[in-house]
Sequence to fold (478 residues):
Amino acid sequence: MASVQRLPAFFDHAERIRREAARYLFDYFEACCEGAMAVDREARIVWINEPYAQALGLADAAAALGKPVEDVIPHSLMREVVQSGRPILLDIMQHGARSLVVTRLPLTDEHGAVIGAVGFVLYDDPRSLQPLMTKFSRLRAELDAARRELAASRRARYRLDDYVGSSPAALEVKRQAARAAASDSTVLLLGETGTGKELIAQAIHAASARAARPFVGINVAAVPDGLLEAEFFGSAPGAYTGADRRGRDGKFKLADGGTLFLDEIGDMPAHLQAKLLRVLQEQEFEPLGSNRVERVDVRVIAATSRDLPAQVAGGRFRADLWFRLNVLPIRLPPLRERRDDLPLLAGALLDRLSARAGGVRRVLGASALAELAGYDWPGNTRELGNVLERAVMLSDRRCYEAADLAGLLRPPAAAAASAPAAPAVQRLADAVAEAERTAIRSALAVSGGRKVDAAKLLGISRATLYEKLALLGLQGTG
Fold:
């Protein structure tokens, strides 16, 4: 009961403190600033201090009382503050030849109604704000640079000319890609790992009417299942544990007006396939944890190295999504089906690598080209680039021959088979690699080639599995 009785006394005390703080702040600002004034609800001057009156060229402060503020200060925005009830915290006001840094605040009664406004001249020279303006300009320049860099990262880096080859198979890919660029339909790129699916996706975007808009890519297999929905559709603030408190945009929103490239679409979890189908059909979605419907204008290019019809037959991929994606299918042939392109392709890759390695041009001799032509290339163009990069790193020769490449094309075990017998001692790293190959092959066999299930059996993420498949030369497995 005593505590209840003390409440009115406390509130009276708090109100006195508030009034004293307001009076102190007003007196402090008036003493420190270059001028101060107040207007009523009709924006008539009801008070102006002497320093401000003198700065404005008035005979005395009383001469301004009762006049509309614009009659005394033509460029004043005090009337706007009274009418809107919103402050103008920092502004530069011109008065004759002078530039004044000012702040303007509304005044309200006990019911919250605006009864006037008060203004202070903080500085009579904007150069007093130079350190702040310099910092602001620097931050704005950094923000603009970051935006330009982000925009550049979302532009296509490749054109159709970057798909090197003149074989009938390569020319057919370019022809179909050019036709795809002329339309706005969904494209499905089919091909083994390393055949250039992302290159063709970017080339289609670059040749399309959307070229000036973003190109956004996402590898479905590289994102954990639990994060895929937010990665695609974004999330509302605090939608899940660890989510950004401000929310975040998903890839569909980032690609609005442009192209979204969905790599390894065959690895998409079943629960997201229905949501993707809806976006493809309706061009709208709901961010994770939100009831707000977002509309987008996105052209989708999907890619996969999997047999989607077989997955549909096995119930692992929705038939309706397959039909929706398979509007413009383009098959990218493996390197072994276009061996005639090897000289051109290897030459282009070697020129690029040579430029990065100091500008000394390297070429391939006849025996080296024959060696490349005789290899099966399970990793396709990506593997070819890897082999040539290793050659550049391991040798300073200007012209590579078969001997420079032979050891890079065949597994070490193949070369060891023709060597004289030696004690069966295996390097620890080789033994670990062989054990990983065996475990991965077994997991893929048990899972029927489905990498998502194989990764679960192995106790690793899909991203880790894909890294190991590439590292251990198992890209074509499964």
